[in-house]
Amino acid sequence: MSVREFVVLGTASQVPTRHRNHNGYLLRWDGEGILFDPGEGTQRQMLRAGVAAHDLNRICVTHFHGDHSLGLAGVIQRINLDQVPHEVTAHYPRSGQRFFDRLRYATAYRETVRLTEAPVDADGVLAATPSYTLEARKLSHPVESYGYRLTEPDGRRMLPGRLAAHGIGGPDVGRLQREGRLGDVTLEDVSEVRRGQRFAFVMDTRLCDGVHALAEGCDLLVIESTFLDEDAALAADHGHLTAGQAAAVARDAGARHLVLTHFSQRYADPEEFERQARAAGFEGELTVAHDLLRVPVPKRR
Fold first, then answer.
1. Beta-carbon neighbour count of residue 234 at 10 Å?
2. Which among 93, 89, 115, 73 has a CA at the least distance from the CA of 34?
3. How do residues 73-110 score in pLDDT, each as one tens digit?
4. Which of 33, 101, 142, 232 is deepest in the core (most CB within 10 A)?
5. Confidence of residue 192 (pLDDT cuts 50, 70, 90)
6. 256-to-95, 175, 179 alpha-carbon distances in Å
7. 158, 177 contact by CB (below 8 A)
């Protein structure tokens, strides 16, 4: 049975707290695992969350500030220590190649795993598999930063009433699905489009076109909300979003489930992020993330 869930490993912004580790997030998508922004302490958080090095197929780094990337060294060495049997691909801004190189070879270790470097230098598709297409969009931050979006291909949903009307049942249903036609009956005659699921990961950024493009129509939108709305000027100065801004993006994009994360240590009441997000008019499912939280990807419509 396929599993699609988002595992939160850390939710702090620049400074970790007693209750929030630096960033780290894993998307489980069927048989693959995509690790986003492994900050300091990610390897230990993976252990606490039941995430193994063998679970990782891709690593996606949005940018090279320490709270989003200092855990790379430990994660890469753990992948090699555990001799992960499959290829692992790393995506990150090409402008930060020197930082990636330093983190990959921060200390001596034995390389046993094929780690493929696939840096990002423009908007576009990074990978296309039968299960998803992964793309990147440039964001607005003091250093070059990219957000990531995963889109499942659309499929077909069989309609029992139409199948019955054409006298099709049993093994013939599977044959029709595979071949696209059974006699005079086409697949389109007895099915409808089943929209693929969509996920987006939006970290450190001001409001920009890339934010809206990533969020559009998402089933699960994970987005930073470093500041509360009263500190909007500070957020803009430092290249971040407020809770209200993040929620407005989700509202306008028609996102189904919004996950807010990446919180400044200056705020003591996490519920205020939810209150401000609701005040911005977002009416879908809303989660204020905490460490070790597991969020299922919403079921298909």
1. 15
2. 89
3. 999 999 999 999 999 999 999 999 999 999 999 999 99
4. 33
5. confident
6. 33, 34, 34
7. yes
Query: What's the per-residue H, E or C state across 189-242?
Result: HHEEEECCCEEEEECCCCCCHHHHHHHCCCCEEEEECCECHHHHHHHHHHCCCE
Structure tokens of 188? 């389109």
**d(Cα 17, Cα 178) in Å, to the nearest integer?**
53
Q: Which residues are catalytic?
A: 67
Output the six-digit token pair for 242: 């407020």
Average pLDDT for residues 118-137, to the nearest whole number? 97
Burial 11-50 (b: 16+ CB within 10 A, else e): bbbbebeeebbbbbbbbbbeebbbbbbbbbbbbebbeebe
**Can you give the pTM of this predicted structure?**
0.93
Residue 1 has pLDDT above 60, yes or no: no
Residue 178 CA to residue 279 CA, distance in Å, equals 48
Output the CA angle 256-301-1, nearest 5 degrees. 105
